[in-house]
């Protein structure tokens, strides 16, 4: 896939949901719908990433666009993705909950939690493990890529808004742990960010909450840009596998010192800065301007070792993201150079 490395449209014709909040969702036409009290699909917990790159809409004949005419989407992506921070958060478990009350009409479990870069997914099982909920009045949600063995509901079971139904997983056609959340009304895909069909034209207005509750909409609105990964690397960082380097906390004195970072929702003109300091002070300080709007943007910088190698001790890496002179993201990491 492209930079986002997310799943294709789920194999099931249904959608997904999340935690309960205090505001009523409305039918796109304005009348109260059975799909009321809709919120986001994840219970608040440590390790939950804000949604990134998954606002669905790609207008035919145009560059990919999200509901606000931005670039936080991929071509033909028909849902909203919520990813977890890292492997530790995935192992701990991030609960997925029903966005609204309804009846479970379908579930699938037993698909392994393995990245498609390691193992191909079974034909017709793009969505991996998942749950489908019918909310009445034509509203349906689907929760895809759930963790194997985590689903706690059965077909025919009534669920309440905010009730846990499983955990974020890595099953199906996916490269990293995340929840793929879909909404349909009358069998038409609906964008929860503006409560309109995916075929509707995008709009630049920032005053709409869509199907999200007001509080959640405000959180999601602030989540458009973030540093979602970064750390020291022991060598060249493959853009296709940047997270393979995240655990590098022990570095060799004769190897280059490299910092890598992954940014979600970067815009043209944003400045990504890398700075490394060691036992004897500053080692490296450089900045990289983003050359365009990016769903995901991965970059790295660093310095070759001096002839006698790096002095042993603790090194500190600082990754900062700036927009129009304002700091909008930062991450600090440390590692130790071994003698």
TrEMBL record:
<feature type="domain" description="M23ase beta-sheet core">
    <location>
        <begin position="89"/>
        <end position="192"/>
    </location>
</feature>
<feature type="compositionally biased region" description="Basic and acidic residues">
    <location>
        <begin position="43"/>
        <end position="55"/>
    </location>
</feature>
<dbReference type="InterPro" id="IPR011055">
    <property type="entry name" value="Dup_hybrid_motif"/>
</dbReference>
<dbReference type="Pfam" id="PF01551">
    <property type="entry name" value="Peptidase_M23"/>
</dbReference>
<protein>
    <submittedName>
        <fullName>M23 family metallopeptidase</fullName>
    </submittedName>
</protein>
<feature type="region of interest" description="Disordered">
    <location>
        <begin position="42"/>
        <end position="64"/>
    </location>
</feature>
<dbReference type="InterPro" id="IPR016047">
    <property type="entry name" value="M23ase_b-sheet_dom"/>
</dbReference>
<dbReference type="GO" id="GO:0004222">
    <property type="term" value="F:metalloendopeptidase activity"/>
</dbReference>
<dbReference type="InterPro" id="IPR050570">
    <property type="entry name" value="Cell_wall_metabolism_enzyme"/>
</dbReference>
